[in-house]
Amino acid sequence: MTQDDVARSLEWHTSKLIRIEGGRTGISKVDLDALGRLYEVTDPPVMEELHVLNQGARAKGWWSDFRKDVSDAYLTYIGYEAGASVIRQFQPLAVPGLLQTKEYAETLAHAETDPVTLGQLVRLRLMRQQTLRRRQVPPCETFILDEAVIRRHVGISRDPTIMPTQLRHMVSVAEGSERISIRVVPFKAGSHVGMLRGAFTLLEFDGGLGEVLHLESSELHETVTGEDPRIADVRADFEAILEEALSPSESLSFINDVARDM
């Protein structure tokens, strides 16, 4: 059926259906039931599942409480991240937010913002970690870090224990879950494509939904969806960087060794 066919059958304006299908407006239970009847969806469990999804779609995401503190673009990414089944991230300069300790996160944000906003940014980072790992089925997470991330003694002027504690925390997180993997690209691997690409995250979802790419820099948060060719390019780059990385066990041993040296 075309959109005009559906709208005519339900005595709707076609623009109403376009807004619903495009995700630009919600749908009431009455309208959902009307579409179900028109499309001959007769299986009660299917309609029940659609009603549950509809209720969830109207609920406010926990991240909306941070609208005053971070950009809408970043909150859009966090919304995607909250529902991802697979998270793959490359970081050339800093420990990924999903692996950061409170003290490390505070140290990174300290020079960029006022104390009130700093507290909210750190709280947001920790809530991202907690909500993902409390899910009934947590996502599979793979993090590739350049050796520079491990070597840089973040916080040394404030408290020399911040970075070694951060390193031991990463090892503990990875050892505590089969669904979390940390890989290190050592300096001895030489140059690699990630040096030009910069930090990025790829998200995958259950249910046949397309991948989402998040590109990150100090001044930019860009979330890429749909058929954008950059998604396939970055996916290939991730696999290329992975080939240069130490194995999971070698990576954790390496991180432990650096922590001990610090």
Description:
The longest helix is centred in the middle third of the chain and has 19 residues, at 115-133. The protein is elongated and about 70 Å long. The protein has 262 residues and is an alpha/beta fold. Helix 9 (162-175) packs antiparallel against helix 12 (248-261). 51% of the residues lie in helices and 13% in strands. The protein has helices at 3-10, 14-21, 29-38, 44-58, 72-82, 102-110, 115-133, 147-151, 162-175, 194-197, 229-244, 248-261, and strands at residues 86-91, 140-146, 180-185, 200-204, 212-216, 221-224. It has 2 domains: 3-58, no CATH class; 62-261, Endonuclease, Chain A (2-Layer Sandwich). The protein has a 6-stranded mixed sheet with strand order 3-2-1-4-5-6, sandwiched between helices.
Short descriptors:
six-stranded mixed sheet; 262 residues; single chain; Endonuclease, Chain A; 2 domains; elongated
Largest sheet: 6 strands, mixed
Structural class: alpha/beta
Q: Calculate Rg over CA atoms.
A: 22 Å
CATH fold assignment of the largest domain = Endonuclease, Chain A
Number of helices: 12
Shape: elongated
Poorly predicted tracts of residues: none
Spatial sequence of strands, sheet with the most strands:
3-2-1-4-5-6
Total count of domains:
2
Write down the overall mean pLDDT: 92
Strand content: 5-15%
* Alpha carbon gap, first and last residue: 65 Å
Estimate the helix proportion, in percent.
40-55%
Name of the CATH architecture of the largest domain? 2-Layer Sandwich
Count of DSSP E strands? 6
Instruction: List the secondary-structure elements in sequence, H or E.
Output: HHHHHEHHEHHEHEEEHH
The CATH class assignment of the largest domain is Alpha Beta
